[in-house]
Structure formats: C-alpha cells, structure tokens
Design brief:
Chain B: This is Protoporphyrin IX magnesium-chelatase. Chain B: Its EC number is 6.6.1.1. The complex is a heterodimer of chains A (339) and B (615). With 339 residues, chain A is α/β, with parallel strands linked by helices. Chain A contains 14 helices and 13 strands. In chain A, the strands form 5 sheets. A 5-stranded parallel sheet of chain A has the order 4-7-10-1-11. Chain A has a two-stranded antiparallel sheet with strand order 2-3. Chain B is flat. In chain B, a hairpin with a 2-residue loop joins strand 13 and strand 14. Chain B contains 26 helices and 17 strands. Chain B has 4 domains: 179 residues, P-loop containing nucleotide triphosphate hydrolases (Rossmann fold, 3-Layer(aba) Sandwich); 78 residues, Helicase, Ruva Protein, domain 3; 54 residues, no CATH class; 183 residues, Rossmann fold, CATH 3.40.50. A 6-stranded mixed sheet of chain B has the order 14-13-12-15-16-17, sandwiched between helices. About 17% of the residues of chain B have low confidence. Chain B is an alpha/beta fold. Classes of the chains: A alpha/beta (339), B alpha/beta (615).
C-alpha cells in the first residue's frame, strides 16, 4: 500500500493540526469536522494522524477491541463470558476509514455469510463500527454519505452502543468512537444532527501567498519522488509528536483547570447564545487537552481562547443563510470579553 | 475538399497532442485529461492516437454513465459465490482497470456515486471496499479521461476537474486541423525512464505558484499538478531541467483553463473577492505569516531534502522568494495571449462569479434521488419484476437452510429457492425542489427586487430546514438564465442571489419557457418540483427577442399554457407590482397557478404565504 504523507510535513493549516491532536488527546471531546476549500490537505492530515497514534491495551482476538482493564461491565459478551483469563495486547488506536460506497451491512455488521453457508450457523460478523470502537472513524467527504448510513451512525454515536437486529440476529456491542470528517460546503450542507456530533469544526482555506504554495508543492514533490527517504527524514519530528501525544493522554486526568476558565467558558457561551452545556464542557475539555499537549499542568484562559473558534463555530445558532460570520462573531466576543 | 485549418486551430490540436503524450508518460500522477468536445471524428481520432501511445496491454475501459456502484467498486460475485458455496469477492471495473486509463463518458452528467470514488482514487490509489459483506483493499492506479460534453451550465464536477492536470478543448476543431501525433511508443517509454532525472528548479516552482495566484486559481492542487506536468513535458522534450518553454506549455495546458481572473496583478491584489469565497472570515485564526514554514529558528524541512539532492552546505538559508520578474512576465504574457476572447469579455463584465458557480458541477444528487432514502430492508419478492435483487439478503435467507435442503444439484454448492429471493425496497422519498423564478427587469427592479430577494432568502432557509433543493431562474433584458441549478448548497444559492443584477426589459415568455424546461427535467428525474414566480406580469420582450407589450404578452400567455400542459408542478405567481394588476393575475390563470397580490407585503409575510403552497 502507498505510504501516507507524514503529519509533520503538512505546511501551515495550524488550526486543523491542533484540533486533530487535541481530539486525539481526549476522545470525549468528540472529534473534528474539517470543512473547507478543496486541495487544502484535509484528508492528508487526517490519514497522517493514524501514524501518530499511541498504543492502547486490547483483548487479543476480540473483534470488538475490548479493553482488558475494564470491569466486566465494559466488555463485549464474548470477553465477559470467557472462562480463561483475557490476553492483553498493545495495539495502536484504530483509525478506521468509512469508504465511499460502503453498505449498511459492513458498517453496522451482519450475519457472517461464510459461516452460515459452511456450517449453517448464525454468527455475527462485526462491521466498521466495531473496528472503530475506542478509536476514530474517519469519513471522507462526509456530505456525500448516504442518508441511511448517517442515521445508523448518529444513533450509535449517541448511545455508544451498536444494537443489531437483522437476519434473525440479535447482537449488541459497545461502539464508542470519535468521528472525524472532512467535506466541502459546495457539495451540500450537513444535517444539523450530524454537525452536533462533532466536538470541533475547522475551516480550512487555501494559502494565498506564494511562499506557502511553493512550500506545499515542494514537500509533496519531495515525498512523491522518494517516499521512503522523505518519511525517514521526518521520523524524528513524527516521533516527537507521537511522544507528545502519548504524554498528553497520560497526564490529561491530572491537569487542573483554572477557575477563571470555567467562568470564561460560561460567559462566552452565554454572550454568543450557544446552547449551553455542551459548548462549555467542550471548551473546558479542549483547553485541558491543549495544556496537556503543551506539557503544562494547568489549563489557562489562553488555552481556552485558542480553541474557542474551533469549538463554537458550528454551534452558533445561525441563520442558515449566513454562513460567513461565525468565526468573526466568536473572535469579536472573545476580544470584547477578555481583552 | 477540406478547408485549411487556421493557425489557431493547428496550435490547439498541437496542445491536445501534448496533453495526450503527458497522459501517456505521467499517467496516474497527473490525474488525467478533461477532454471537452462533442463525440465525433476529431475526438475519436484523439482517443485512438492517445491509446496508441500506451503499451499494448494497458487497460483502457469506458465507464458508462450509469454504472452501478457494485459494478464500479466491486462487491459480491453472485455466480461465483453460488458455485463455490462461500462468499467470493468480485472485482469492480476500477480495479480491473488498474494501471490503465478509464474513460468517463458524458462526464458532465456523471453521478456523484461515480465521480466521488474516482476523485478519491486520484488522491490515493487505494480502493477500500466495505460492501456486501466484503472488506478488502486493492491498489488501484488510474488515469481518467473525462469526456466532457457539457454546454453552458452543465459542467464536470469541480472535485474531479481539479484532480485532472490536463484540460483541453476540441470543440472548435475541424477535421482539417487534426494530424497524427508525432511520438512513437518508444518515445513515450524513453520519456518515462527519463522522468525520474528531471530537475524542477526553485525558480520554475516559484513561477508556477505565482501563475496560479495571478490567474486566481485557488486550489493548491493545481500548482502541484502543474509542477508534475512540467516535469513530464521536460522528459518528453528530452531536456534535463524544466525551462521556460515547458512553463509556457504548462500555463496553457494546466493553468489557463482553470483561470478565474485576468493575470497581471501581483499577489497584493490576489485577495479573494467576495464572490469567490463563500465565507470571509477576514481575521483568519492563522495569519499568513504563520504559514510560511521558514522562520529562521526552524530550518525549513526542505533543506535537508535539498542537501541530499545536491550536496549543498547545510546553511539553512531561506529559499529565494524573489522570483525572476522576467520569467513571470513571460508566463503571464503567454497566458494573456492565450485567453479566449469570451473569457475576457466575461472577466470584464464581472460575471466570473456565475462562471465559477457553473463550474461547481452538479453534485449528482439529482440522479441519485431515485435510489436514495432509507432502504426499508428487503422484502421477499421476485427480482424479475424489475426490482433490484438484494443479493446479500437472499443468500443470508438461504444460508441457514442448506443442510435441510440437502446437497445442491447441477454443480452448484448452494440451493437457493424462489422463496429466498429478497429485493431491495427504498422508501420513495422523492426530493422536493422549489424553483424560484425572479423577474429582475427594470420595471420590477425599481420596486421590488430587493424585497423579492429577501423573500427568496427566507424561503431558502425554509428549504434548508426541510432539506429540499432549490433552483433559481432570473429573467431580464432579452433572456432568462438558470442562475442556479437545483442544489442543496445554501452557500451557492445565496451567492448567486446576491449577484443577481436588475434592470432591462421583461422577457416574460423566456422566463416561463426556461421554467417549463427545468420543471420537465425535474419531473423526469423523479423529483417533486414546485415553482414560485415573482413578477409584475408586464412582459415587453417577445420570445424572439423583439420588443412590444402586446405581442410579448401574447407570447407569455402561450408559454404559460404550454407550461401548464407540460408539468403538473404546483406553482404560484406573486404579483410584485405596487398595485395589483390584471396582467399578473391573467398570467397566473393561464399557468394554473395561485395568484398572490402583495401590494405592501414584506418579505416575512410573503414567506408564510409561500410556505403554505410549497410544502
């Protein structure tokens, strides 16, 4: 398979890169929607993120990525009922691609045809949602997704559990994943329900200066001419980011949040008229993840302000015709309240 | 006898030939060719010559307009599965064409279900399958030739256009202008081998990026494809490093067809104008100087790259961002000279926004509408009745019974009986489309155009909530124009609305004809259209463009009766004249539409009334 372009070699687009890393530090933030101009490296960045993922313990051979350290309550039926001790194995956090043209049976899972035909037994074949459990589900061109697949996704993303009732099967398994999506607004709007599922949203724009463009082409060109060498050259940087991510994930729980941040988050949401709790909560969580990434042990007002646009952009109650001003409105509110 | 072709035509053919040679050498790395032109001897000859440049065994496959997803991407091979008694994956057309060329016929009408996978494969040559119980990955390197026969507002989807490096137009070429390509297969093979050695200097790269900005080309992809094309052209010319000659060719073959403005400015005025960016958050959270990754304290990552390439001392100097003005001017001159006159006219009249919108392509939702919606599971049924067989469901139904049914006969490993058949059922939620027809002529504009725009905006918001599509037709001067083909994208709807100018005559008949045409098309594709016409009903331009109130009115009424006969769409006429007037009422009567006088309604009032009719 082709090598993925390294994350650390992506030129510019800092907001997108930060948001992706923050989402990788704390899954409870709820992922990122990357929306914007064509050709800005949306898919490239998300696919590159997979290579930076730290490892987490998983039950060996479990199709549902069970966590061996979880009490029985958090396990799938198979691991729970297993008589022998669960074997643990460290595997990278899964980043699962939901490709174009995916059919429902492969997304939510279905009757295992092979075993049904061979042995006449009804067995469940896990789908993409099971594979993405405890990891990321990446949807490229999210606005081209078929409606009925979106429905299934929304349902599972909300409950953290996949309930399958089809072909005489009755199966449920935990499915908690972080949605990461990319898309182009020209291809059509996203349903508000789907927008809601994303913790952050980032707008990417094409760089309008020659130097940045030259750098983009140069990096891509160097990568294509010698993928091996290029990747090797980026190895040290990639390793640094990988360790940074790992450390941030470990230290997340011990990070303190300054009181002023909680207060500021509430004030900001109020002044922008966003729908309360989730916005505030996400502001605090992203500030914490940001502090963890920076290796600090206290999340400050600046952490929150830095990510506020990504957190609130898609939550503003908006006149659906007024696509423009979200970012500007947030910036205005930020400087009015905190400068 | 053939008429001698003009120099301009010969030059055009020459460019087309170079494009074919580039495709043959660069293949997947250049994405492919957007080939504009009608089917005919010229296009056929180009294709034949192009194929002749490729090695004998190279796949060269046509993707028909409505290629089914399972045929295109692959899925369960039913026949083989039944023979074998266990699931067998079938390879799709794309995988079968790997390392070759696919031809997309009538590309401007290709549905999203075809365009999107192609675009994804051009980005990353891996086909990921999660279909019909099969999960697989295939390497799949393709080059695409998109046969674009679009006229006016029909255009190839933008996400495909921007992934195809080479853009050529054979439309105006007579048979007399075509000639055999001057390369042999060996030439192509030689160029392929030489490609890895071709140097692309910083200077050349700077020039390319300058040119993309000067021509108002937004996507960074264009610069990347241009750089690769420059390399390929250099290899074909048997040169070692990219020179001005290749850069000029690249401007013609790759960049100019994407140009959205006249070259000649420097990057200071390369700011987006409002028309071109859907959202102007001027204070972007990342100032541009953050984007240049060559702050002195962190040596640019490319440095080491360059060291390894040409053994420079590691002095971490910044790349020279001072392009040679001479080169750039030459490039832009080439561009200027090549600009088609109509583009110039368009640029000068400021209608570029509309052109860009047209190029945004149709997001195939239209063809998809019939096969969308939630599959209501599958039902027992007979696939021969024209319904689609749900293969997976059928097999899954049959599977548990195999043992009971005993061994299959006739070499089959699986016994499927009639009662196992399952067919796919979709809940038919047909797409509703609201067509707004706005009279933007002088008589209306004077009074109500702003108000009508306001009303349309509010209605658009409604459609957004209901996930309807909207379309916009405007008429003024001497013709009607489809400003916005049916879309769900509010960004585009709003943009085309705000760009709507007012003034001129009232070609009412043309407006009604255009509406009828669109309604008919929507009916054909199974949507449920409704229309809202905002006019004062006082046409003064006839169908043939001549003026005169009486004949124009007669024409309009004829057109109205015709629309009424040809479409069952619900409609209403909103009388925008300051005093309710007989002519608009008469028009509504002939259309069989509701009549709504709005002597002094405001936009919101209008909205509530229309809402009752349309929903």
């Amino acid at each position: 398979m082709a090598k993925a372009f390294p994350f650390t070699a992506i030129v510019g687009q800092d907001e997108m890169k930060t948001a992706l890393l923050v989402a990788a530090v704390d899954p409870s933030i709820g992922g990122v929607l990357v929306f914007g101009d064509r050709g800005t490296g949306k898919s490239t960045a998300i696919r590159a993120l997979a290579a930076l993922m730290p490892k987490i313990p998983m039950v060996e051979g479990c199709p549902f990525n069970c966590d061996p350290d979880k009490k029985p309550a958090g396990l799938c039926a198979r691991c729970e009922s297993g008589t022998e001790k669960l074997k643990s194995r460290a595997s990278p956090i899964p980043v699962v691609d939901l490709p174009l043209g995916a059919t429902e049976d492969r997304v939510i899972g279905a009757l295992d045809l092979e075993r049904a035909l061979h042995d006449g037994e009804k067995a469940f074949e896990a789908g993409l949602l099971a594979r993405a459990h405890r990891g990321f589900l990446y949807i490229d061109e999210v606005n081209l997704l078929e409606d009925h697949i979106v429905d299934s996704l929304l349902d599972v993303a909300a409950s953290g559990e996949n309930v399958v009732e089809r072909e005489g099967l009755s199966v449920r398994h935990p499915a908690r994943f972080v949605l990461v999506g990319s898309g182009n607004p020209e291809e059509g709007e996203l349903r508000p329900q789907l927008l809601d599922r994303f913790g952050m949203s980032v707008e990417v724009k094409t760089p309008q200066d020659v130097a940045a463009r030259v750098e983009i082409v140069r990096q891509r060109d160097a990568f294509e001419r010698d993928p091996e060498g290029f990747t090797k050259h980026q190895q040290r940087k990639e390793g640094r980011v990988r360790r940074q991510l790992q450390k941030a994930r470990e230290s997340l729980d011990s990070i303190e949040v300054a009181d002023e941040v909680l207060e500021a988050a509430a004030t900001l949401c109020m002044s922008l008229g966003t729908d309360g709790l989730r916005g505030e909560l996400t502001l605090v969580r992203t500030a914490r993840a940001q502090a963890a990434l920076a290796g600090r042990d206290v999340a400050t007002l600046d952490d929150m302000k830095a990510l506020a646009p990504s957190v609130l952009r898609h939550r503003l109650r908006r006149d659906p015709l007024d696509e423009s001003g979200s970012t500007a409105r947030i910036d205005k509110a930020l400087s009015a309240l905190f400068d | 006898m053939t008429i001698a072709a003009s120099d301009e035509q010969l030059a055009r053919w020459n460019d087309a030939a170079w494009a074919a040679a580039c495709l043959a050498v660069g293949g997947h790395s250049l994405g492919g060719v957007r080939l504009k032109g009608r089917p005919g001897p010229v296009r056929d000859f180009w294709l034949e010559q192009c194929q002749a440049l490729l090695p004998d065994a190279t796949p060269w496959r046509k993707i028909p307009l409505h290629c089914s997803e399972s045929r295109l991407l692959g899925g369960l091979d039913l026949a083989a599965t039944l023979r074998k008694g266990s699931p067998v994956a079938g390879r799709g057309l794309l995988v079968e064409s790997s390392d070759g060329v696919v031809l997309l016929s009538m590309a401007e009408r290709a549905p999203t279900s075809v365009v999107a996978p192609l675009a994804a494969l051009l980005d990353e040559p891996v086909l990921r399958l999660e279909r019909e119980g099969i999960a697989a990955q295939h390497d799949c390197r393709l080059a695409v030739i998109a046969l674009d026969e679009g006229v006016d507002d029909e255009a190839l989807a933008a996400n495909l256009i921007e992934r195809l490096a080479l853009q050529i137009d054979l439309t105006p070429l007579p048979v007399g202008a075509i000639d055999e390509f001057p390369w042999s297969r060996e030439d192509i093979q030689g160029a392929r081998e030489a490609l890895a050695e071709v140097e692309l200097g910083d200077q050349a790269l700077q020039s390319i990026c300058q040119a993309t900005l000067a021509l108002g080309i937004d996507s960074p992809r264009a610069a990347l494809l241009a750089a690769r094309t420059a390399r390929v052209l250099t290899a074909l010319a048997r040169e070692e490093s990219v020179s001005d000659e290749q850069l000029e060719q690249v401007v013609r073959l790759v960049l100019l067809p994407l140009a959205t403005r006249l070259p000649g400015g420097d990057e200071q005025d390369a700011e987006d104008d409002v028309e071109e960016s859907p959202d102007d958050s001027a204070d972007d959270s990342q100032p541009p100087d953050n984007e240049t990754p060559d702050a002195p304290d962190s040596p640019p990552p490319s440095d080491a790259q360059r060291e390894s390439e040409d053994d420079k001392a590691p002095d971490a100097e910044q790349p020279n961002t001072d392009p040679d003005p001479l080169t750039d001017d030459r490039l832009l001159e080439a561009a200027q000279a090549m600009l088609p006159p109509d583009l110039l006219a368009k640029l000068l009249s400021g209608s570029m926004g509309a052109r860009r919108n047209a190029a945004s392509g149709k997001s195939g939702a239209r063809q998809r509408a019939k096969m969308r919606g939630r599959p209501m599971g599958s039902l027992p049924g007979d696939p021969r009745s024209g319904a689609r067989l749900d293969v997976m469901a059928t097999l899954r139904t049959a599977a548990p019974w195999q043992r009971l049914r005993g061994p299959a006969t006739g070499g089959a490993r699986l016994r499927v009986q009639a009662e196992d058949f399952r067919i796919v059922r979709f809940r038919q939620r047909s797409q509703s489309v609201t067509v707004f027809v706005v009279d933007a002529s002088g008589s209306s504009a004077l009074y109500r155009l702003a108000e009508a725009k306001g009303a349309v905006e509010l209605l658009l918001a409604d459609c957004y909530v209901r996930r309807d599509e909207v379309a916009l037709i405007a008429f003024r001067g001497d013709s009607a124009e489809l400003l916005l083909p049916p879309t769900r994208s509010l960004v585009r709807a709003k943009r085309s609305l705000s760009a709507l100018p007012g003034g001129g005559g009232t070609p009412l008949a043309a407006g009604i004809d255009a509406t009828a045409e669109l309604l008919e098309m929507l009916d054909r594709r199974g949507a449920t259209p409704a229309y809202v016409m905002l006019t004062d009903g006082r046409g003064n331009v006839c169908r043939d463009g001549s003026t005169g109130r009486e004949p124009a009115l007669a024409d309009a009424l004829l057109a109205a009766q015709n629309l009424r006969l040809s479409s069952a769409a619900a409609g209403m006429v909103i009388d925008t004249s300051p005093r309710p007037h007989r002519s608009a009422a008469e028009l509504a009567e002939n259309l069989g539409a509701l009549y709504l006088p709005l002597p002094n309604a405001d936009a919101r009032q209008l909205q509530s009334v229309v809402r009752q009719v349309v929903s």
